[in-house]
Amino acid sequence: MIISILLGFIAAVVSLLGLKCTNVGLSDEDEKMKVAVTGGFLFILGGLCSMVAVSWYAAMITAQFFNPSYTGTKYELGDALYLGWAGSVLCMLGGILLTCSCKGKEKQKYSANKYRYSAGQAAGQQQIYTTNAETVTSSKEYV
């Protein structure tokens, strides 16, 4: 559980540094995305550590409760365990959403001949330019 708390704190700090709205640390958007994804993975790992700790304690309580030869105080599953499970799920869900929301930039191919412009056309005619580099002189031809 202590490792989960430490991972959650480190994940929060790393995720804050990876946000697009912060100017602390990195200024490159791709590097910020990688830092935010790292924070998301740390949140997922912290949630898993918390889930293991809470589930392990619940299994120990259940085993002691149903053991007839156990003479100590018998405990039942309480609100703290349910809150621990809910917190673990929310931490993992937040890490998954943070990781999935960061996507890389797609490289756009720049083509100088994408739009064709003909300056020698008559000034009175309307010109419509399309992406496949053909000039259409009437709006009826375009449709």
Could you please describe the fold and organization of this structure?
The protein is mainly alpha-helical and 143 residues long. It is 57% helix and 3% strand. It contains 4 helices and 2 strands, in the order αααββα. Strands 1-2 form a two-stranded antiparallel ribbon. Helix 1 runs antiparallel to helix 2. The longest helix has 37 residues. The radius of gyration is 29 Å and the shape is elongated. InterPro entries: Claudin, PMP22/EMP/MP20/Claudin. It is found in: Cell junction, Tight junction; Cell membrane. Belongs to the claudin family. One of its GO terms (cellular component) is bicellular tight junction. Keywords: Cell junction, Cell membrane, Membrane, Signal, Tight junction, Transmembrane, Transmembrane helix.
Search tags:
143 residues, mainly alpha, two-stranded antiparallel sheet, 4 helices, 2 strands, elongated, transmembrane helix, structural molecule activity
